[in-house]
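hey so u asked for the seq, here:
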Amino acid sequence: MPELFHHRKEYLKSTLSEDQVSNDPFIQFHNWFNEVTDAGLSYPTAMVLSTCDADNRPSSRIVLLKEFNAEGFMFFTHYLSRKGKHIGRNPFGSLLFPWHELERQVRIEGTVEKVDKTTSDIYFGSRPEGSMVAAWTSPQSETIPSREYLERIEKKYRHQFASGKIERPPDWGGFLLKPDLFEFWQGRENRLHDRIEYYLEGKNWEIRRLAP
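ran it, structure tokens below
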């Protein structure tokens, strides 16, 4: 077994205090997101989405953030995938942005709901052709017999759509996570990390510091 006890590092890059953050968590996220994109991280929009099934058994995977605004955080997927089915039965989820290079992470919790069909259509139409065909090809999260099976299905759809517009599959579209909690984490020396949490109290955001 590999020895992992001594795999550690110190966090020395930045600080986070109550007087540094915005009163609005969406603005604070926007500020940090700008810093992340300015730093040139490879996948600034990659986020870990966690959902639970009807028995509260959790499942996590990485998805890509496609839009955020004062309402929430948007991503797209198959509605009949594992995560889509989870959300249909248990409409709560969490997001985690692991921005390791800046020694930061952001955790967001809230309710998840489908976006409207027009928004899903607009985003689907912006995707590369290969990605649009893939949305028709893949029965996401279902068992398939082989890679070759998937490639045969893709070839069939490429032929089908060769001379026309590729419409959005009816079981594919967007979700919006509407937050009721944010946590901004900044790594600090000796594991005394900074953790600033925003939580929704009625219609107002309250701020508190959490112990590391």
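The mean pLDDT is 95. The two ends are 29 Å apart (CA to CA).
lmk if thats what u needed
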